[in-house]
Amino acid sequence: VSVVESGGGLVEPGGSVTLSCKCSGVPFDEYHARWHRQTPGKERELVAFITGDGNNARIVDSVKGRFTISRDKDRNLVSLEMNSLKPEDTAVYYCSLQDMSSRKEFWGQGTQVTVSS
Predict the structure, then answer these.
(1) Which of 14, 20, 29, 95 counts the highest number of beta carbons within 10 A?
(2) What residues pair up with 2 in beta bridges, in sequence order?
(3) Strands 9-11, 111-115: pairing kind
(4) Contacts by 15-19, CB closer than 8 A, 24 or more apart
């Protein structure tokens, strides 16, 4: 199983960035997907969730209206579109895949997003 995030970088406040999570080695539509983030000294927090079939998605309140999660089954890709970014969105963002049957979860290595002028 391979889970690889990309797309992070330095963004100005109010800007946008889209993170990508490329997944391989699994039957993609049998895995739920999540985006999480973590800042130094804090626990990792869930940001967004999408079901294996892509029909249901959840965004946490702190980023609702600004972040959107989606998935492309043809490319085995999970994306997190982030708009109106704030300095407090600065974090390492992680993608995870969860087997719907076994509930086993696989994680990527993370991608840094820094929101600063």
Answers:
(1) 95
(2) 24
(3) parallel
(4) 15/85, 15/115, 16/81, 16/82, 16/83, 16/84, 16/85, 17/82, 17/85, 17/113, 18/79, 18/80, 18/81, 18/82, 19/79, 19/80, 19/82, 19/93, 19/95, 19/111, 19/113
DSSP 76-100: TEEEEEE-S--GGG-EEEEEEEEET
Residue with token string 């002028």: 117
Across the range 68-91, mean pLDDT stands at 97
pLDDT at 52: 95
Structure tokens at 96: 């995870």
Give the separation between CA 51 and CA 69, rounded to whole angstroms: 10
Q: In whole angstroms, how far apart are CA 15 and each of 5, 60, 64, 83, 85?
A: 20, 20, 16, 6, 5
pLDDT band at 68 (very low <50, low <70, confident <90, very high): very high
